[in-house]
Design brief:
Layout: E1 2-5, H1 8-15, E2 28-29, E3 33-37, E4 43-46, E5 51-56, E6 61-66, E7 69-74, E8 82-88, E9 93-101, E10 108-110, H2 128-137, E11 147-148, E12 152-161, E13 165-174, E14 180-190, E15 196-199, E16 203-204, E17 209-210, E18 215-223, E19 232-239, E20 245-251, H3 252-257, E21 259-260
């Protein structure tokens, strides 16, 4: 997904006007919405449709996009108000908002109407549950060095493939007195600076909370993708009520060398 910062002049030229009558081929501007965020905590924006692009008129705000969700926060306290425009993949409408900071941010802005057209759920591999159970029981092997700081440790402990999926087990250790409630995990296959492929997990654990001074082993199943040996799989874990983000970069050679699942 794409987040852009545009100049104020261009921004107002494109989106600062009101449109009363438009053809079916043009975007329909939404009414201006007020969104208040903080610099220490993430606010979540939920929409019916999948987000294509977020346009910010200031570099003092940060937005991360995943499907129909935007994670939003300010970089510093008392940031000046600015504009935010959200473009959707359908191309039928836009979200037009006024962005400002507050000491008491709203955790979730739910703009869903329930009118989005649902997609048919894909058929699940009958053997998927068996392979997930097998992955959970595997002894931790620590496939790569991982990331280790005084606040947390994160490492890939197991990985294997079958004809359709890649199976991952990740171990997170929380070294702080603050519980880490995982909001989302995002996965990107990166082959070079311009090639980034975002993939959605087919399966993940429902309980993704890492207790204070505790640890958690998380299991994920991804659509199989063969990256370049010099590429990598970037896994990012974002906190539900806070600004902590854990990043794990898995070298492409680890993915390529992972073994093939045989019926156990």
């Amino acid at each position: 997904m794409m987040v852009k910062v545009v100049s104020r002049l261009a921004f107002l030229f494109l989106f600062g006007f009101k449109t009363s009558v438009v053809s079916n081929d043009l975007l329909m501007p939404a009414s201006l919405k007020e969104v208040k965020v903080a610099h220490q905590y993430i606010s979540t924006l939920l929409f019916d449709e999948e987000v294509k692009e977020v346009l910010l008129a200031s570099k003092e705000y940060v937005a991360n996009v995943h499907k129909n969700i935007i994670l939003l926060r300010a970089i510093k306290f008392n940031t000046a108000p600015t504009s935010i425009v959200v473009l959707f993949k359908s191309g039928k409408q836009i979200f037009n908002g006024l962005l400002s900071t507050t000491q008491e941010p709203q955790e979730v802005y739910d703009y869903r109407t329930g009118q989005a057209v649902g997609e048919e759920a894909p058929q699940q591999d009958p053997s998927l549950a068996k392979k997930i159970h097998y992955l959970k029981k595997l002894p931790q092997a620590y496939c790569c060095k991982g990331i280790h700081t005084k606040y947390y440790s994160i490492a890939l402990t197991n990985v294997f493939h079958d004809e359709r999926y890649t199976y991952l087990k990740v171990h997170i250790e929380n070294k702080t007195a603050l519980k880490f409630d995982l909001f989302e995990a995002s996965f990107q296959h990166i082959n070079n600076k311009k090639s980034r492929i975002l993939v959605d997990p087919v399966y993940q654990l429902a309980d993704c909370s890492v207790p204070a001074y505790g640890a958690k082993t998380l299991v994920y199943v991804l659509p199989r993708y063969t990256t370049h040996k010099s590429g990598r799989l970037l896994v990012s874990f974002a906190e539900q009520s806070g600004a902590r983000v854990f990043n794990l970069s898995i070298p492409g050679r680890i993915i390529l060398k992972a073994r093939y699942y045989a019926n156990q």
